[in-house]
Amino acid sequence: MGNGKFGGHFYPGLYIFFYGLYQATLISKAVIVSDSSGYVTYSPKNKKRCAKLKISYGGWLKIVTGSLLAFYVVFCLDDGMVLINKGMPPRFMYPKEWQHLTMFILLALDGCADVISKNVLRQRCVLLERGATVLSFYVLLLLLVSHVKESSGVELQVHSLLILVVFLLMLVLTAELWAPEMFHLRMIETFLFLMMGSWLIQAAFILFRPVSGFLWEDGDISDIMFVTTFFCWHVMINALCMLGIYGVSSFWHRCYSPSLRLMGSKEALYQESSSGTFYKLLQEAEQQDKDNQAPLLSKISPCDRA
């Protein structure tokens, strides 16, 4: 049971943290390209190839990760995921494990929404993708609030800080439904994903595998205070992590990307008239990670970049 609870925090945290790192690289590329007065577009040949091989890698990753974590929760219990025991009167069994299972199923369903939007529908529906993610976090917040009903001391403090991050992330994702192109919201979202992932990893070690080998004491106020102190360290470290990613991306762009030259194009102006500049840059940066062909840059007006 201890190993199962450790994995139920560590592996989801690892996935969310790397997802946050991936989003941070996309945002850094978009900001750098925008600052260099350029807009990333792709050649017609590349667009045709992408149209044929249009795969929602992020969606399939969510489906696979959610499914694997769900199987892990089911099989980490010796007697399996029993819902109700056979005693009289019958009682529900393993409430926290069932909540973990529900969270991982939500992740897989969120991936299904991405795949449907990008691979099944004739036209991509960003609102469906973002709406599914927001709904998942609303349900996740409800599960976490009830998850700590029987917790106390160190465990309660750890999960309370996690609930704070999830609540803020839910608010940001909700705001993005109406303002998907806002740069500041995407930055905050990425930072909160990093916080959620790194804190889940930390929580796994605090609650189940302390580095010192000794369990944290619920009755020791210093232990509870240091939980909050560690959380504040995570805030600073993740902020520095995002700054470091931007620095590395900027260095690579200046030193190892000589092919990125500005070229005038009316197509970029037409694309900018239909959506926000930064949101388009994020989409292009995401596409660039999937294609290894050299991109072309088109010039945009200063008012569009503003």
Automatic annotation (TrEMBL):
The chain crosses the membrane at residues 12-34, 55-75, 98-116, 128-148, 160-179, 191-212, 224-248. Keywords: Membrane, Transmembrane, Transmembrane helix. GO terms for cellular component: membrane. The keyword Repeat does not apply. It is found in: Membrane. Pfam families: DUF716. It comes from the Eukaryota. It is a multi-pass membrane protein. Belongs to the TMEM45 family. This is Transmembrane epididymal protein 1B. It comes from Mus musculus.
